[in-house]
C-alpha cells in the first residue's frame, strides 16, 4: 500500500501545477489527513522533490521541474493534442460565457416576475376603466341619438304645422269669398256640404 507521502508526490507530479495545502487536501478527498499532509509536504520539500513558495500568508507547492524526466516524442505529441483540446474547450466555454452574459443583460432589461404581476394588475384596472368609459359613451351616444331623433321629429312637426296653417288660411280665404259672393248658408254648413274639415288653430300650436 502506497504511503501518504507517495500519494501526495504522485498527485503533484501528475498534475504538474502549483497548489495550496488546502487545495491538495480537498482534491485528494481526505485520502490524506491534514496533519499527515503537512508532514508529507515538508518532507518532500526537504527531499527537493517539490518546491515550496510563499505568497503573503499562503504557501504554494508544486513538483520540482528539474526532477521530472524528459518527455518522449510520443508524450510530447499527446500533450500537444491535449493542449489543442483544452484550447478548443476553453474557446467553447468562453463562447458559452459570452452568450450567458448577453442573455443576462436581456433578462435584466425585462420585468421581474413581481413587476410583471404588478403590470398585469395595472393593465386589468386600466381595462376596467376603459370598459366603463366605453359603456358611458355608448349610453351617451344612445341619448344623443334619441335627442337628435326627437329634434328631427320636432322640426318635421313644425314644418307640417306651418304647411297646414298655410293651407288652412288658403281654404278659409276661398270659403270667405264664396260666402261673400252671396252664399245663403253659414261657413259650417258650407264646409259640411263640401265635405271639408277646418281644424281649429289650437290643433296647430
Question: Which labels suit this protein?
Answer:
three-stranded antiparallel sheet, rod-shaped, 4 domains, Arc Repressor Mutant, subunit A, 205 residues, 7% strand, 6 helices, mainly alpha, recombinase activator activity
Question: What is this entry, summarized?
Answer:
The chain folds into 4 domains: 4-67, Winged helix-like DNA-binding domain superfamily/Winged helix DNA-binding domain (Arc Repressor Mutant, subunit A); 69-110; 111-138; 149-194.
What does this protein structure show overall?
This protein has 205 residues and is mostly helical. The chain folds into 4 domains: 4-67, Winged helix-like DNA-binding domain superfamily/Winged helix DNA-binding domain (Arc Repressor Mutant, subunit A, Orthogonal Bundle), CATH 1.10.10; 69-110; 111-138; 149-194. The protein is built from 6 helices and 3 strands, in the order H-E-H-H-E-E-H-H-H. The chain has helices spanning 4-15, 21-27, 34-46, 73-109, 113-180, 187-194, and strands at residues 19-20, 50-55, 58-63. It has a 3-stranded antiparallel β-sheet with strand order 1-3-2. The termini are far apart. The model has no long low-confidence stretch (mean pLDDT 77).
pLDDT averaged over residues: 77
- Under CATH, the topology of the largest domain can be stated as Arc Repressor Mutant, subunit A
Rg, rounded, reads: 56 Å
The residue fraction in helices comes out at over 70%
Main sheet, how many strands, which sense, barrel?
3 strands, antiparallel
| Uncertain stretches of 5 or more adjacent residues | none
The name of the CATH superfamily of the largest domain reads Winged helix-like DNA-binding domain superfamily/Winged helix DNA-binding domain
Spatial strand arrangement across the major sheet: 1-3-2
Shape: rod-shaped
Number of domains: 4
- The number of strands is 3
Please identify the structural class as seen in this structure. Answer: mainly alpha
Domain Homologous-pairing protein 2 winged helix: 4-64
Pfam family, one: WHD_TBPIP
Family: Belongs to the HOP2 family.
Subcellular location: Nucleus
Amino acid at each position: 500500500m502506497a504511503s501518504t507521502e507517495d500519494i501526495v508526490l504522485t498527485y503533484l507530479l501528475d498534475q504538474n501545477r502549483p497548489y495550496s495545502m488546502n487545495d491538495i487536501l480537498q482534491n485528494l478527498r481526505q485520502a490524506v489527513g491534514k496533519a499527515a499532509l503537512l508532514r508529507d509536504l515538508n518532507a518532500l520539500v526537504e527531499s527537493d522533490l517539490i518546491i515550496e513558495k510563499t505568497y503573503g500568508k499562503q504557501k504554494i507547492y508544486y513538483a520540482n521541474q528539474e526532477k521530472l524526466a524528459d518527455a518522449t516524442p510520443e508524450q510530447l505529441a499527446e500533450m500537444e493534442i491535449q493542449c489543442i483540446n483544452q484550447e478548443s474547450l476553453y474557446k467553447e466555454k468562453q463562447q458559452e460565457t459570452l452568450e450567458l452574459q448577453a442573455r443576462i443583460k436581456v433578462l435584466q432589461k425585462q420585468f421581474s416576475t413581481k413587476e410583471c404581476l404588478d403590470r398585469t394588475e395595472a393593465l386589468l384596472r386600466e381595462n376596467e376603466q376603459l370598459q366603463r368609459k366605453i359603456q358611458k359613451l355608448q349610453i351617451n351616444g344612445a341619448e344623443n341619438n334619441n335627442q337628435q331623433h326627437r329634434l328631427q321629429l320636432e322640426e318635421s312637426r313644425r314644418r307640417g304645422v306651418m304647411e297646414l296653417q298655410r293651407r288652412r288660411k288658403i281654404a278659409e280665404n276661398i270659403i270667405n269669398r264664396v260666402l261673400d259672393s252671396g252664399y245663403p248658408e253659414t261657413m259650417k254648413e258650407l264646409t259640411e256640404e263640401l265635405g271639408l274639415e277646418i281644424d281649429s288653430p289650437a290643433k296647430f300650436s
